[in-house]
Structures are given as C-alpha cells and as structure tokens.
Amino acid sequence: MVSWQGPRAGHCICHVTISGDGCGKIALWRAVAAGFVRRAGAMGRRQRNRQRQQQQQQQRRERGGGGDGQGREQGWEGGYPEIVKENALFERYYRELRIVPEGEWEPFMAALREPLPATLRITGYKSHAKEILHCLKNKYFKELQDLVVDGQKIEVPQTLKWYPEELAWHTNLSRKILRKSPQLEKFHQFLVSETECGNISRQEAVSMIPPLLLNVNPHHKILDMCAAPGSKTAQLIEMLHADMNVPFPEGFVIANDVDNKRCYLLVHQAKRLNSPCIMVVNHDASSIPTLQIDNNGRKEVLFYDRILCDVPCSGDGTMRKNIDVWKKWTTQNSLQLHGLQLRIATRGVEQLAEGGRMVYSTCSLNPVENEAVIASLLEKSEGALELADVSSELPGLKWMPGITQWKVMLKDGQWFEAWKDVPSNRQTQIRPTMFPIKDEEKLKVMNLERCIRILPHHQNTGGFFVAVLIKKSPMPWNKRQSKLQRKLSQRTGEISVSAAAAEDGSVEIIKEPPDAEDEDTKETQHLLNAESEQSKKDGVCGPPPCKKMKLFGFKEDPFVFLSEDDPLFPPIEKFYALDPSFPKMNLLTRTQEGKKRQLYMVSKELRNVLLNNSERMKVINTGIKVWSRNSDGEQFGCAFRLAQEGIYTLYPFINARIINVCIEDVKVLLTQENPFLSKFSSETHKRVKDLAMGSIVLKYEPDPSKPDTLQCPIVLCGWHGKTSLRAFVPKNERLHYLRMMGVEVFKAKRKEENFESKTEEGDQDSTKNTISHVPGWETAAISS
Description:
Blueprint: E1 2-5, E2 15-18, H1 22-63, H2 88-97, H3 105-113, E3 118-122, H4 129-143, E4 148-149, E5 152-153, E6 158-159, E7 168-171, H5 175-180, H6 185-197, E8 200-202, H7 209-214, E9 221-224, H8 231-240, E10 252-256, H9 260-271, E11 278-281, E12 292-295, E13 298-301, E14 304-310, H10 325-328, H11 331-350, E15 352-362, H12 371-381, E16 385-387, E17 400-401, E18 408-409, E19 415-416, H13 440-446, E20 452-454, H14 456-459, E21 464-471, H15 476-492, E22 495-497, H16 499-504, E23 509-511, H17 519-538, E24 540-541, E25 559-561, H18 569-575, E26 587-589, E27 598-601, H19 604-612, E28 619-622, E29 624-629, E30 640-642, H20 647-650, E31 658-660, H21 663-671, H22 682-689, E32 694-700, E33 714-720, E34 725-727, H23 731-740, E35 743-745, H24 766-769, E36 770-771, E37 780-782
Helix pairs in contact: 6-23, 11-12
C-alpha cells in the first residue's frame, strides 16, 4: 500500500509511506522513484522553456521591441511571436505592376509598416452632431495638447480634409494607448459610450469613401450587397435621414450578408441609429433574389437606385492593421476571389435601375481584383454601363488613377501576360477575365483611368480601390432573354411576359386561359391564389418555406403586421392622441400567438417589400421598437409605454402627454433613478399635477437667447408615477445627454474610487456642481 501526503503550505516535501513485504517494498520504491524522476524531468523541461522565453523577451526589449522598432508599442512583446513585416513576393509583384509612382516605393513600404491611425466619424444626420463636434474640439481635443504617453507625444486629432462638414477625424493614438493610459481614460470612455449610442463610429478612413461616392438622397432605394460589419451601412442610413424633420424617408436600405453570424453584428450596428428604413437580410450576394413590390395593385420588379458592392477581397490594403497579411499574402488569394467578385458585381448591375449608380470597392491593391473585374463587367455590358468620372466629388482626397496594363502571377512567381500564354494545366487557376483588354479602341472607351486607387503613404491611410458605375440601359443578356420570351409568346399564344421582370432576368410568366382548361388545374390554381392572398391580407411575413429555400443559421420569428381592426391599437391611439396621419398599418410584431409584448415600426416602402417577398428572402431584422408592454400600464388606460429607441420617429404624431422641461429638470431626470416631483421646477410640477399616471414624453427645447446652453432639442421617454417622475433612457444615452449639457461623467477604474465625485480643475464650487449618482454609472461631476 502506498499513501501520499502532499506538500503543506510553504513546504516542498512530499511524504511517502510504503507497507508490505520486502520484495513488494523494493518494487514499489523503484516505481515511486521512477515517477519522481519523470515528474522532475517534466518540471525541468517546463522551467527551461520558461527561462528560454524570458531570455528571448529580454533580448527583444533590449533591441527596442523588434525589427521595425514598433513591436512594444503594438503590444506584441508579451510572449507572442513577432510578425516580421516583410514579404518578398508582395514586393516583387507590386514593383513589377508599377502601381506606385516612380520614386515613391520606399515611402509606400514604410507607410505599410507603420500602425494605422485611429479614425472616428460623427454621425451626420442626428441633430446632436454639431454639439458632439463642439464637445470634441473644445474639450477633449484640447486636453490632448502637449500630452506625452510612454514617451510618445500625442498628436491632436486632425480633420479628414475630404470628408464633409468636419465630421471625420484621425489621430496617431493606437487602441492600446487609448485603453491603458490613465491620462486618456476619460477620452476613451467618451468614445466607447458615444459609439454605443450611435453618435460616433470608429471607422477606417478609406472605408468612408464608397458611401460618399454613391451620392445618396433620402428617396433612394439602396442595396448594400456585402454589408457586415456595417460601418458603411450606417453611413447610408445617415444619408437617408439627412432631413431630421422627416420621420419616414421614402427611401430605404436593404443590407445583406452571406454569413448568418455576421448579420447579427450588422443588426447591432444598424440598431444604434434607430431607423425604420433598414432591413437586414441573409443571402449569397452573387445570387441575391430579385424582389417584387406592389405598385397600385400591379406587381413590379424592385430595382435599386444605389448599390454598394464592397466585395470580399484579399485585403492587402489592410496590412497596417491586419498584420497577419504580411506572412499569409500570396497572389493565389486574388486568383481564387476574382470569380466570386465578378459574379457579385454582375448580380449587382442586374438589379440596378437605369440611371442608377453602383460603387464597386475592395481593400485590395491588386488589379486582378479591381481593374480586371471592372473591365470584364464593362466588356460584357456592351455599352450598358459606364465608369463615372468622380475626380471632383471629394476635393482634398489624394488618389491614383486606374491602370490599363497588368500581368498575372502565380504564387510560385511565374508570370503570364495574356490568356494564350497560360498552359492548360493552369487554366483552372487563371481565367481569361483576369487579363487586361488588348483591343486599344475598347480599352480607350472603358476609361479605366477613372477608377480610384488609394495608396497608404499619400494621406496616411490604408490601401483601397473604388470604381463608380452608372447604368445607361438594360444589360444585354436581359434584352436577349426578353426577345426570346416574346418570340415564344407569339408562337404559342400561351404566355405574356412582364417587361420589367424580363429586363432583370426574372421573367414573370402569366398563363392565359385556353378555350378548354382542365377543371382540376383551375381548382388547384384557385386554392393557391386564395392562400397567397390570405397570407398577404393577414400581414404575416414568415420565413420562406424549406422547399423554396434552404434555411441556415438561426430560425427567425415572423413579421406580423397589425390588421386594421386589431383591438390593440385603439387604446394606444386614444391615450397618446395620435395624429390621424399616423401610419398604423406600418406597425408590426414578431409573434403570431399569445400576447404582443413589443410593437415595431417600418416605413411604408419596407412594408411593401416585406409583404410581397416573404417566400423569396430571409429577413434577419427590420423596424425599430416604438412601444413596449407594461404590466402596470393597463390600469392607467394603456398597456403600452413608449420606447426610447423609436421616440424621435413617433414624436411628430403624438399630441398628448407631452411635458416641456427645462435643462435643470433634464439633469435631474438623467442623474437620479426615480426622483420625487418636489425636485423639479415649479413649471414642470404644475404641468404634471393634472396629468394621469403612465407613460409620457419629456421635451427640452433650446433657448436661442442663451447660446451657452445646449442648443439641440431632446426628446425623452418617461413615466409619471403618483409622487415621482422618471426617464426610461438607456445608460449610454443618458451619458451622452449629460455630456452635451456640460456634465462630465466617467467610470472609476479602481474599487476605492467608486462613488467618489471627480470634478475638472477650475471648479470653484464642488458641492454645488457634483452629482452624487447616475443610474447605471459610478461617478459624475459637472464641469462648469
């Protein structure tokens, strides 16, 4: 028998007791000793490995952090293997293609090895954009002047000259410095909080270009084909809502992505902007279905006025932030993606309306993914498409024109100048569309120099490519299909073709009844039509049936529009005195059975799309929440309270239960959980006194005669109780409003700092200016 007593605290001794006869004891002793030796050997190897790693880290620190001197700053010293920012094949390939002007190769490569500057964009359509810009310029940016962190001088953020209205900025602050530096704690928390609210977006500079070149107006129907993670989609939504006085723009954005999980990231991005004009769908962009809409009782194919085609790419323009690209880059990546990129772009122009604009973009510098795709598309369009000249649309942006000649290289370094040079065993890897057009006349008409290539060293950005296409007429293969269908119609007399559908390649075939039709066929067709009409009448837009389309990812709940006689709506309409113009038919829920807990709202155009395409597309999300069921609400006359997400959409239609409050009242509402009525101004107290309990709207109107106070309106959802008044506003939105009113709110990092008031230097009366508690946050103080 062997009994083992493990080491006690502070000791490294193990006690082994062996009992038994002599031979047994000897055998056991040998076994135990062998175990000790094996264990000691293993422990020795681990210790030696740790020592070796520590020595390597020490050597790297002594050398300054790595080959380019930036390893420590980029946070790669903590035991991770360094990525050497060298790739001989990359340099050989792009030197040969000459995409970089002569004499600029060294600055180009040096820029690629530098970390990418942090960039942020202020949400342009919100009325608070000017206030946020004022706050950034006059408070946070001023605090960064002459600031040194870890021996590095912090540059004050600079505006992107080519972005309109000073709404985009860049700085040399890396994410690591922002997160770890105590001096930048407040600025970092400001960025995080405002990003959650949707007021600021952390977005790479070059990524902001495609939406700007789409030239979007509020009435445009827009398709974003490869939308995730959603920063460009957010820009498109902002452009739709350029006029904040119009709650329901005529246009909409349909944002698509093939990856089901990334669709939910897309939903999160879009939800921050609280728009009723966004729909997220889940399809392969190269075969995204043709949708139909109802136009005065007549079915029409939906064509988009604007399409953003930001296709999957090899990403060698992102080397400054995605360091893995340095060691993984080969020409094979581009060769494998070219076909998919061309299919997606082709599907995009098929769905584009005549006169519409499509922007094709990649974060790659490779002409195989860029000019080759555009040239192939232009060639097979036979004049239906043209490249737009956008050289003057973004003044201040530095760019290089597209190239007209290039070669194709395999990953083993073998070059090919034309398709005829490619051996048969390589013709599955390399395709004819990858090569430049040899016909000089065709090449001249294409105007490939109108493409835009952004090089990293010109304005300290990432690498990027953009081309803007305008559709002048239907695509030729759609014309041919339309002619074929007309000929077939003339021969048989049995079908008529919808011209609009034929143009898109999705031909609508309508059977004309012959003289004598089979009764069974008639009955079947009648039942099918009745079922379809009943589904549309019920306003139920469920997921497509499995036979029609293979579902993948999570199963989504249906979208159920409220019927005209739904008993749910009259109490809501009466309680809030909704305007007769309120579009109640646009209200929907996500459940067919049981209690409806949330009410959502979409624009009438998206309602049209949903009702007519439930079997064609998989919708992940649409609409904004406008009402939530409240268990206590029924006793006060309405079971639904207002939701903050949709208040700016609903407010123009509400004519009752609105309380105008002063700025001091707003501060009380946002900094106290459930304040008593006695804490509010006498005017507010009077207005609330005769109002029935329940959900209310709290409105702040700026006073132009007091320019030092907040100069943008605020609309909050609230609840009037028996003796109190409270605001139902998410945490980050509370912080946003407080900052706009001159209140500095930030979270303490250390436990001992919790619930301590922190005021800015120069506060003369800290007792007067300190707020003791912000719901959902730890500390807050007014900066006078």
